[in-house]
Input
Amino acid sequence: MDPKLYHLIHVAAALLVFLGLGGMLTGQGGKAYAVLHGIGLLAMLVAGIGFAHKSGLGWPNWMIAKIGVWLLIGAMPVLVKRGVIGALGAVVLAIGLGATAVWLAYYKPF
Output
């Protein structure tokens, strides 16, 4: 498969992750938003690793940092549910983590 297709799937999956997270934070929609969040997380991981493999990137440090960001975004619903962070804090954190992931992907600082 073409690396550009992996990239497209990765970005579309990121949209699903944030849509699901936003829906869960509103407290409406039942499990539908949790399902979107989970499917988006899985698709984002598979497409990101597929892109890296097809592009011959290996495992640079910036990609490992992006996986750390992915883990934090994936854990965010649990953190909110357990009261570790509030909904507003989760929104701010999600924006920051999303921006960090984009920064890591574009600038590859390390």
Notes: Residues 3-107 form one domain. The helical segments are 3-26, 32-55, 61-81, 87-107.
